[in-house]
Amino acid sequence: MTITLRWGILGAGNISSQFVFDLLLSNERKSETHHVVGSIGCSNKQKGQDFITANKITEANNYGVVPVVQSYQELYDNPDIDIVYIGTPHTYHREQAIGCLNGNKHVLCEKPMTVNKKEAEELFALAKSKKKFFMEAVWTRFFPAVKELRQKVYDEKVIGEVHRLFADFSYYADVTKLPTSSRVRDRTLAAGALLDIGIYPLTYSRILLDDKVGDEHTKFEFKSFMTLDPVDKVDHLSSIIIKYENGKHAILSTSELIDGPKAYIRLEGTKGWAEMYSDNPARAKHFKIFFKDGREPIEYKDESGYNGFIYEANAIAQDISDGKLENDTIPHAETLLVMGVMDQIRKENGLVYDQDN
Q1: CB environment 259-293: b (16+ within 10 A), e (fewer)
Q2: How far apart are CA 8 and CA 156, in angstroms?
Q3: What are the CA-CA distances from residue 256 to residues 177, 236, 311 (Å)?
Q4: What is the C-alpha separation between 245 and 85, in angstroms, rounded?
Q5: Cβ neighbour number for residue 357 with a 10 Å cutoff
Q6: DSSP characters over 85-152
Q7: What is the spatial distance between Cα 184 and Cα 177, in angstroms, rounded to a whole number?
Q8: In the chain, what are the domain boundaries?
Q9: Which of 57, 187, 194, 350 could share a disulfide with 198, CB 3.0–4.6 Å?
Q10: Class of domain 141-304+337-356
């Protein structure tokens, strides 16, 4: 059965470009799910037109539709849009999501969904009151590589009993040479490594050490450390240790001061271990499983050509077609769980944003 979903794209930056690339490639491949980009919402009309041109959105790859460029409010009010993808910085998400929901739009909102758990709870409550689908765009959870790794490790138990996970997302941002007004350093923009990229190591610990999500999650405790920059007062280096009640440990790290290791994931079991590699630790496409007994490693590569956003987009299209208001892979309760952990980490380390007050 063909499903058609009419998208509004809010924000004309790089992340939105990557998202749209996947939608159009899926259309060109004549997939059963038709993703129609109907509107580009941004603060500048020329920027929107440049976005359409740069991303080669045409009638031929967009089911006969050339998107309109609209202001945010015009996008909220557009009756020809089913769902809005919010690809702006996270300090804008709350206000923009409220605008989308009040305009009766479903919402896919980039991570972190909000600055804190309190704001996320507000948006989920509004979405439910409007009977609209809402999901945090934790795209990593939907990758075939993640599903394949979980299948090998937990269903087939190829590395035996799993005991420990190392996960890192770090890159060298040359922070000291950036102005404090930079998105990487500006505390008023909720800058810092944890919210921007540290959410991914946390997500991997949830995916690879727990087969339950949200309210059903396996109980855990954690300890954390942050190094706050003396000038901009946000974290550019953070470390977290998690212990699940079944004894499994996760050692998680994130930094904007140094490049991370090539194998950004290492999942260790009694019979072997798994490593994951990527140009972007959020983009789970390639893993190898190694065995202590010297057997040939198992290797998996996603060579689909997609950036990876298509997997969550297709899942959402099916959910909305089925009349669901949230997704089983990343339900509202799972987003609130992770947001709550990040709130507590920041509280323990003295990192407070304006939105927390």
Answers
A1: ebeebbbbbbbebbbbbbbbebbbbbbbbebbbee
A2: 41
A3: 12, 5, 28
A4: 36
A5: 5
A6: EE-S-GGGHHHHHHHHHHTT-EEEEESSSSSSHHHHHHHHHHHHHHT--EEEE-GGGG-HHHHHHHII
A7: 11
A8: 3-138+309-322, 141-304+337-356
A9: 194
A10: alpha beta
Q: Please name the helix (run of DSSP H) or strand (run of DSSP E) that holds residue 251, with its range, or none.
A: strand 249-255
Concatenated DSSP letters for 178-207? S-TTSTTT-GGGT-SHIIIIIHHHHHHHHH
Per-run averaged pLDDT (10 residues), the chain, 357 residues: 96 97 98 98 95 98 97 98 97 98 98 98 98 98 97 97 98 97 96 97 97 96 98 98 98 98 98 96 97 97 97 98 98 98 98 94
**269 membership: H or E segment, kind and range:** strand 263-269
* Total residue length of the chain: 357
Superfamily in which the 3-138+309-322 domain is placed by CATH: NAD(P)-binding Rossmann-like Domain (3.40.50.720)
Residue found under tokens 């605008």: 99
